[in-house]
Design a protein that fits this description.
Layout (H helix, E strand, L loop, with lengths): L2 H8 L5 H32 L4 H27 L6 H21 L5 H5 L3 H10 L2 H15 L1 H12 L1
Length: 159
């Protein structure tokens, strides 16, 4: 049996698979974007205040280190590389460990408000375990494995 036929036999093709996939990406990027300043605020409570310039440089470098692997991995998923999903799982683990560190170290009056954001990577992980996210990854994998045959099967399915 062909891969494209397997995709349409195994998964329910709908727009919801794309909604779930994009939601996972957005939740991971937002969560990672929030962690960087919180990590810096936590470090300030340990080592002392940073100058504005140092804070900005550290913030930019932490954001780049956190965001670039996520962006590249999700581009690879869209290019049909299903193994890149492991980077998303590693990012969720890093986010959870970072939130644990922030909970133990950060001294801020709105600390627990910031800690509510731990729900973002948890929700991303829950969505990654659904059949819709598996279909999202399998869609791009099947599309890039044999594009012409996949498009013909898609047209037969829709038409």
């Amino acid at each position: 049996m062909k891969m494209t036929d397997n995709f349409f036999d195994e998964y329910d093709f709908s727009l919801w698979i794309f909604a779930v996939g994009i939601t996972v990406i957005m939740l991971l990027i937002i969560s990672s974007g929030v962690i960087a300043p919180l990590l810096l605020l936590s470090l300030q409570s340990i080592v002392g205040e940073f100058s504005n310039q140092t804070f900005g440089i550290l913030l930019l470098s932490i954001e780049l280190v956190i965001a670039l692997p996520l962006i590249i991995a999700n581009l690879l998923v869209i290019r049909g590389r299903a193994n890149a999903v492991l980077v998303n799982k590693a990012s969720i683990f890093f986010n959870l460990v970072s939130y644990l560190f922030i909970a133990m170290v950060l001294e801020h009056e709105y600390k627990w408000f910031f800690m509510m954001l731990i729900s973002l990577p948890v929700l991303a992980r829950i969505l990654m375990q659904t059949q819709k996210y598996a279909a999202y990854v399998a869609y791009f994998e099947a599309l890039h494995r044999n594009p012409q045959e996949f498009r013909e099967a898609l047209l037969r399915r829709i038409g």
